[in-house]
Design goal:
coiled coil, alpha+beta, five-stranded mixed sheet, Bifunctional (P)ppGpp synthetase/guanosine-3',5'-bis(Diphosphate) 3'-pyrophosphohydrolase, ACT_dom, 735 residues, 19 strands, single chain, TGS_RelA/SpoT
Length: 735
């Protein structure tokens, strides 16, 4: 770099630092500024020789992360300093955690240490379990929640600046973001950041979908602004009459949430009616907030008819993230449904800043904060090292994103649980011992099965017994990570006891068959009985599933067992001898994999049924070779996040010689001759082969499922478009 370029860059660094101080949400004292300045100087020194992939000086990254922490999340000077230093120990061997403690104190050092541990988690993709890395990262929640918050800010800036990365790296990082970081931001109450992370995640995992929705939203922006203006005009006079100080804003729905709604409801962009919400933010002291919120509710519903089942009162019962607001859905101008969110300025700050704003408004005599309660509740689940890592993270993730219900204990205490929770989840949320001794439950005074799904407002009573203990069925009934973790631990302990006995029984029985129980014979037995682990083997012997007869059969086949084992492991694909290589290439190898465009054996994943023309990727399974999934498969984000090392690029090269099965769902108004119209269109006009057809009609409304064979995606799209035009059909979607 020339001296002139260095001078320009240094000025830009100094400007970025000054902006950081200017945008801080917290009021910074002279000591705060001194701490931040010192952290900035150390970070500049530590990163002086580093550059990002884009070519800019690396120091811009920690400054940007600190700016997100200061402005978007609103944390204090200690957190801003830690954000500036978050990569120092990892990237520069001249600085240690001990140095951080000496220079900045114990708190900053602890946060930097937590962030360094997360960054240094090995990405050993041959053993991957990225999920194990996630678990270790989540354990830092117990040290200081600010570690995770700064890590979320770090991930947000990385997502904002990913354009210069390789596309496979972009997909991996974006999938991780959608899989764990966005749900974490949601759970901590950082809704703005969660929304941005989701949108950026979609931008890199499904760029065409993202760009299409973004363009359409830009085109409809003018119309939305005009609509918000007309809505505001109707209620402003009444609000002013009440002497309220307020602001009315329009908030467009995120691209990610519009996409989710399109997929879930099987509708087009144009058919998503609530593409934005209207937010009324009012000024109030703490004592009058609730009264004024309901007064505004009254004004809005005086002018617009509310949907009674869409009222959400998160003021009387705040979400466990700390979120407070009144949400109502009304019939607005032009007879369109509009969601109206009513919040005080304090509630709005908590919705946008989460943790930081909550503590700004928290009184010293407040009860334990929801976030603290949540972290304490998670501690046991996080420290359960016996759980399979992928299963653990999946459960944890579900609990992060789940909607909430509120239920009552027999004494009238209000408890928050994830939607879909059962009495068993409620029992474990009270206390582990209550959960372990559960023998039944009453909901609203009536006995219900343990699998009963609880609803908001239910009164739940748990019936216990000293003789009751968990059984394997409980895992089908429990939905929360805490309950499942405790049940698994109890079942594992019981299994281990039986397995210990089984091992001794096996030793004695093998001795009678003149076989020694050692590592070799154990591996042979596990393979022979098609089990996964030695624990499975000992357990089955313990409960008598593997008996004398089966062990004798094993002993007699032992001599040629090794060869059988090898043959089972090596299964060569058979190629018909009468088909030459060129014919195979042109007619059967429809997909190529990787940069070298290799032709490999594969099967289609049942979860998404890809067909030629779909955007796809290959996933290398442990036992079933390569499975091909659609890029928007429900399991794609989880696979790309947890097992990035097993993902291989895939693309279609020829689809003209083969047919693929696809499922179509129809609904609409039942007309005489409708089924005939559908079958005629498919079989006669389009010459598509139907494999199955089922229709049901209920009071004039029909639902139908058709399985067809098509050659490619274009053919399927053409079929669906034609079906939509049949009189009476309302919706056509691919399952």
């Amino acid at each position: 770099m020339t001296e002139e370029a260095i001078e320009i860059e240094n000025k830009a660094i100094a400007k970025a630092y000054k902006e950081l101080l200017k945008v801080s949400y917290q009021t910074l004292t002279a000591d705060d500024k001194k701490l931040i300045r010192h952290a900035f100087e150390v970070a500049v020194d530590a990163h002086k020789d580093q550059r990002r992939k884009s070519g800019e000086a690396y120091i811009f990254h920690p400054i940007a992360v600190a700016k997100i922490v200061a402005q978007e999340i609103g944390l204090d000077a200690t957190s801003i300093a830690a954000a500036l230093l978050h990569d120092v120990v990892e990237d520069n061997p001249n600085y240690t955690i001990a140095d951080m403690e000496q220079l900045f104190g114990e708190t900053v050092a602890r946060i930097v240490d937590g962030l360094t541990k997360i960054s240094s988690l090995k990405k050993d993709m041959d053993v991957s379990l990225q999920a194990e890395n996630f678990r270790k990262m989540l354990l830092t929640l117990n040290d200081d929640v600010r570690v995770i918050i700064i890590k979320i800010a770090d991930r947000l800036h990385n997502m904002q600046t990913m354009d210069s990365m390789r596309s496979d790296k972009q997909v991996k990082i974006a999938s991780e973001t959608l899989y764990i970081y966005a749900p974490l931001a949601h759970r901590i109450g950082l809704y703005n950041i969660k929304t941005e992370l989701e949108d950026l995640g979609l931008k890199y995992t499904e760029p065409e979908v993202y760009n299409d929705i973004a363009e359409k939203m830009q085109e409809s922006k003018e119309e939305q602004d005009a609509y918000i203006k007309s809505f505001s005009k109707v209620i402003e006079k009444s609000l002013n009459k009440e002497g309220l100080s307020y602001e009315i804003k329009g908030r467009p729905k995120s691209i990610f949430s519009i996409r989710r709604k399109m997929v879930k409801q099987g509708v087009s962009f144009e058919e998503v009616y609530d593409k934005f919400a209207i937010r009324i933010i009012f000024k109030s002291d703490l004592d009058n907030e609730k009264f004024l919120a309901w007064k505004i509710y009254s004004v809005v519903t005086d002018h617009f008819t509310p949907n009674p089942i869409r009222l959400r009162d998160w003021i009387s019962s705040p979400k466990s993230t700390g979120y407070e607001a009144l949400h109502i859905t009304v019939v607005g101008p032009k007879s369109r449904w509009v969601e109206v969110q009513i919040r005080s300025e304090r509630m709005n700050e908590i919705a946008e800043k989460g943790y930081a704003a909550h503590y700004k408004y928290k009184n010293a005599d407040d009860k334990e904060d929801n976030l603290d309660l949540w972290i304490n509740r998670l501690q046991e689940a996080l420290e359960n090292n016996e759980a399979d890592a992928v299963d653990f993270v999946e459960q944890f993730k579900l609990n992060l994103y789940s909607k909430e219900i509120f239920v009552f204990s027999p004494k009238g205490d209000l408890k928050s649980l994830p939607k879909g929770a059962t009495p068993l989840d409620f029992a474990f949320s009270i206390h582990t011992e209550v959960g372990m001794k559960t023998r039944g439950a009453k909901v609203n005074g009536k006995l219900v099965p343990l699998s009963h799904e609880l609803q908001s407002g239910d009164r739940v009573e748990i019936l216990t017994s000293e003789n009751a203990k968990p059984n394997a069925n409980w895992l089908d009934y429990a939905t929360t990570a805490r309950a499942r973790s405790k049940i698994k631990s109890a079942l594992n302990a019981h299994t281990k006891e039986i397995a210990e006995e089984g091992k001794e029984i096996l030793r004695r029985k093998l001795k009678q068959l003149k076989i020694t129980l050692n590592e070799k014979s154990i591996n042979e037995l596990v393979s022979y009985f098609k089990l996964k682990t030695s624990l499975d083997l000992f357990y089955r012997v313990g409960i008598g599933t593997i008996d004398n007869t089966k062990l004798k059969a094993y002993a007699s086949s032992r001599s040629n067992m090794f060869m059988s084992y090898i043959k089972n492991k090596i299964r060569k694909p058979e190629t018909p001898k009468d088909i030459n290589k060129d014919e195979i290439t042109s007619k059967y190898d429809m997909l190529v994999f990787g940069k070298e465009e290799e032709r490999l054996d594969y099967t289609h994943a049942n979860c998404c049924n890809p067909i030629p023309g779909d955007k796809v990727f290959g996933f290398v399974t442990v036992n079933d070779g390569i499975k091909v999934h659609k890029k928007n498969c429900p399991n794609a984000v989880s696979l790309q996040s947890n097992y990035a090392y097993r993902i291989i690029q895939a693309k279609w090269i020829d689809s003209s010689q083969r047919t693929y099965t696809s499922h179509i769902r129809l609904s609409g108004i039942d007309n005489l001759g409708l089924v005939n119209d559908i079958t005629s269109l498919i079989s006669e006009n389009l010459h598509v082969n139907m494999k199955s057809l089922s229709f049901s009609s209920d009071d004039g409304i029909f639902n139908g499922d058709i399985t067809v064979e098509v050659k490619n995606q274009t053919m399927l799209k053409n079929l669906m478009e034609k079906l939509k035009k049949i009189n009476g059909i309302d919706k056509v979607s691919r399952v």
